Amino acid sequence: MKNLENAGEISGQMASEELNGQNAPEEAAESMADYEAELEASFKRVREGDILTGTVISVDEERVILDLKYYAEGIIAKDDLSNDPDFQLKEEIHPGDEITATVVKTDDGEGNIVLSKKEANDILAWDKLKKMMEERTVVRVKIAEIVKSGAVAYLEGIRGFIPASKLAAEYVENLEEWNGKSLEVTVITAEEENKRLVLSGREVAREKLADENRKKVAKCQAGSVVEGTVETLKDYGAFVTLENGLTGLLHISQISSQRIKHPGVVLKEGQTVKVKILSAENGRISLSMKAIQAEDETEEVFDYKESGAATTGLGALLKGLKLQ
């Protein structure tokens, strides 16, 4: 009887478990799947020289601790993180970041794996840099020091050289002004065999200027009347710098309603003029003074002499007069 009672109790317990937890086997399977990666990693044997990737758990002034999904955590000392002398550990690395590093020791005496990001970087960085060069990737770097004829910046932990001619859109005369500054660059040379990395900020800077000019040109409305300063005179016209900093061409045929042989007959460099925007397309601005004159009903007609003097013609004064 006692056995039957025990059997009944067990049967009732199983029935209760089935009623209260019908998904128990499924939950167990999901739980195993969740830990599959960790279980697999725990069977792996880590050797010195291996390259591992882990997630940053914590950061302090002297080291970074990584979760390697392994039975032991990874430790990277500050000196093993970067070759950059200006590297700021707590500013540049945060919990949740992923770091790839080389195993230096499998046990530091406390059960942790000692890693070096610098060593892994020396192995992997050049591949990244070559890819950046091929894809013309734009990255931001900080000038670490000024050297003869250029500047030094670190990218992917590798020391790179930026020639003075490639720091900005134009050649930089005073290099010291750039020390400590940040700028966007592209990789133009990445030679692993010679450990030669050359960067350039010129292309990025010029593209930014061109983009800004395109945006400014797009805002120039055809038909608008604006003021500008005559920058230079050419045989075919004058270049006029407008109030927004853009330069437009005032063609010789658009300077006056009368035919002139040279823009210098009417204009001089540095002169302020009022012009009408005829068009602003493809980054080019076409200007006209003649269009404003045509709209001015009180326009005077001038005789332009080759000396540059302008006098009012007698015909224009007598025109329209009636004699009684």
Task: Give the arrangement of secondary structure elements.
Layout: H1 2-20, H2 24-34, H3 36-42, E1 51-59, E2 63-67, E3 74-77, H4 89-92, E4 98-105, E5 113-116, H5 117-135, E6 139-147, E7 150-155, E8 158-163, E9 182-191, E10 196-200, H6 202-219, E11 225-234, E12 237-242, E13 247-251, E14 272-281, E15 284-288, H7 290-295, E16 302-304, E17 310-312, H8 314-318
Parallel strand pairs: 3-5, 13-15
Antiparallel strand pairs: 1-2, 1-4, 2-3, 4-5, 6-7, 6-9, 7-8, 9-10, 11-12, 11-14, 12-13, 14-15, 16-17
Describe the 3D structure.
With 324 residues, the protein is α+β, with helices and mostly antiparallel strands. It folds into three domains: 42-121, OB fold (Dihydrolipoamide Acetyltransferase, E2P) (Beta Barrel); 136-207, Beta Barrel (OB fold (Dihydrolipoamide Acetyltransferase, E2P)); 221-309, OB fold (Dihydrolipoamide Acetyltransferase, E2P) (Beta Barrel), CATH 2.40.50. The chain has helices at residues 2-20, 24-34, 36-42, 89-92, 117-135, 202-219, 290-295, 314-318; strands at residues 51-59, 63-67, 74-77, 98-105, 113-116, 139-147, 150-155, 158-163, 182-191, 196-200, 225-234, 237-242, 247-251, 272-281, 284-288, 302-304, 310-312. A five-stranded mixed β-barrel has the order 1-2-3-5-4. A five-stranded antiparallel beta sheet has the order 8-7-6-9-10. A hairpin with a 2-residue loop joins strand 7 (150-155) and strand 8. The longest helix has 19 residues, at 2-20. Residues 1-12, 14-29 and 297-324 have low confidence and may be disordered.
